[in-house]
């Protein structure tokens, strides 16, 4: 019995040490990406992807592989769970009824449009769902969360990485171009906030675009964007229920042991509730938000290491057309909402 008691902690320690090289490697990539982003601008998620892909030759390294796998599949769940601290139900009231309906419609219609466009382009529905959810909700974070609800496998990882790259690229382009649209069309502060917060993919790019115009537009855009982030919760819950049997079938006996609603999603819901009730100190929210970002950027770095440029090039032009179509659709939709609201209140 003494031998078993001693060997059990030892086996756990050995298992942990096997993860260290890969985890540290992905963390270094994430740190490098964050440094480049802070010094020269641009999205750190995209930098982490590209730097990781440059080190694809280490994906099959026996020492690094276990840690890379954990970073790609486990850390994303921690990062998504901690996103809950950035959301409060009270934020919904500040947007107004029209804004809430319009933003909820943007999420639902973009996902439906993406599924339809993927079918027209003869692409897998999984890619349509990932790209539509990422475009409609909150960029790479949504892509990673939605990916965790789908049957796991090489195809899932491949499509998730492709979506992440495309969303990061189009979101950065939107951050530069959409403020020019706001100025050219003479949008008011509330209209500009609704358009930017409803049409740009990632939170960081929404903030950047809004504050390029003014502080008030930046605040309004951020609020609208956070409502879209809040839509991640019901979307992920629905997808978890829809794909539960598919994940079980794809995962074999181990998948059969998985709960219907995973722990990370329950933590996400709990943190939203606690934050809405004012139970989380500002310091806890700040630390948890930063930790969430680090988990997600390390995870996306790991996905980058696992995928090569050659594999992405084999996909052709259709996925690019899908992501571009989604970006144009949600921007056109939000502009139409802005002008219809203007006519209604005139």
UniProtKB/TrEMBL annotation:
It is found in: Cell membrane. The lineage of its organism: Bacteria, Pseudomonadati, Pseudomonadota, Gammaproteobacteria, Vibrionales. It comes from Photobacterium ganghwense. Coiled coil: none annotated. InterPro entries: UPF0324_pro. It is a multi-pass membrane protein. Belongs to the UPF0324 family. This is Membrane protein. The chain crosses the membrane at residues 20-38, 95-117, 129-147, 159-181, 193-214, 226-243, 264-285, 321-344. Keywords: Cell membrane, Membrane, Transmembrane, Transmembrane helix. Its main location: membrane. Pfam families: Cons_hypoth698.
